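We modelled the chain as a single entity of 453 amino acids. Its sequence is:
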Amino acid sequence: MGRLFGTDGVRGLANGDLTADLALGLSQAAARVLTQGRHADELRAQGKRPTAIVARDPRVSGEFLTAAVSAGLASSGIDVLDAGVIPTPAAAFLVGDIRADFGVMISASHNPAPDNGIKFFSFGGTKLPDEVEDRIERALSGEKLAPTGDAVGRIRRFADAEDRYLLHLLRTLDARLDGLHIVIDCAHGAAAGISPQVFSDAGASVSVIGSDPDGLNINDGVGSTHLEPLRQAVLEQRADFGIAHDGDADRCLAVDADGRVIDGDQIMAILAVSLQRRGLLAHSTLVTTVMSNLGLARAMAEHGITVIQTKVGDRYVLEALAEHGLSLGGEQSGHIIFQEHATTGDGILTGLQLAAEMSRTGRTLAELADVMTVFPQVLINVRGVDRSRVHDSAALSEAVAAEEALLGESGRVLLRASGTEPMVRVMVEAADQETAQAVAERLAAVVSAELAV
């Protein structure tokens, strides 16, 4: 078997790959690994049990997985605070807010309803580094904690979880949103109970779509992976702009008043320039991943902003932010991290800050987005290949070098092996769509021929 943990926790088909037995075992293993820090030692010295927050998105399988996770934790001597259905960034925030020992979020983010996942947050609310996930995976086959009597953990409802998070979001704003009409697409997910409320409390006029989760309709034709319903709603209601979350609300994409999609790179450009102008962008530096558009780096250079690139995954962005003492970073997909306010991507926080910039400047979203010129980008997924040889093939390396020489400074090439499938992603950016498409197709043909299995 390959590594159990992927880019963002453990994911799979609920009751297929991701069973109640696996959820139980993972939580027991995590209880052993994640309660070895100083905070847990201090609690034990005081005769207290460690505490974990457990939360989920509204997909139906989250109900039995939450029960399994909570049982595994309580049987390991961990007190469980069940926060119910809340966004992933809310769970991360609450871990730090109440100084819980760790947190567990049960969600498959933007995936369809049959899938689910389990991700862990360490003390302080940060995602786990690879080495800690590896320790949890090894602990699956080891001895479990098995206290008895009053050392067994308790399971209680976290009654004010939503209110704590909502107030936190409102405190991040330095500008009211009065006069803005915003359409919010909640993806029939975890944002439905919070996002419309917080924007309304901040003064905006709010219209909502995708806000009726039934456990089975999460991300179904709505949300950040299906933007057409949001585009239509913004145009029909003549709103100032719209924002779209994914199932667990750690992403935010936007649509301007004319229906033009504003992706994560453009959102980062707007926010980075805003922070730089106000003297709030630490070290005048933005953190992105290798998938971010070349136009973002060009725009940042024009405004005196340095760009640091990481591997794909918001936890790698967060690691770079922490390592260099930086304040803003994110991904093209809409995971944006404000280091001052959050320990993970937060789609609601991002939408609020975007709206606040419109309110501060009196400019439309389209005007703000013009800070960046988006280079045409073509992505081709080449399936059925040996992804492990993507950087070992001499013929492929020569083909990439030739195409890069052709593009010069007006484009770039990125080959990226999938972390979970026999697939290589070929991404090409160029000054025009036709060139990007042609280069991507030529390289995809080489990948298919040279890495065939």
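As a brief sanity check on the tokenised model: The mean pLDDT is 94. DSSP finds 15 helices and 18 strands in the chain.
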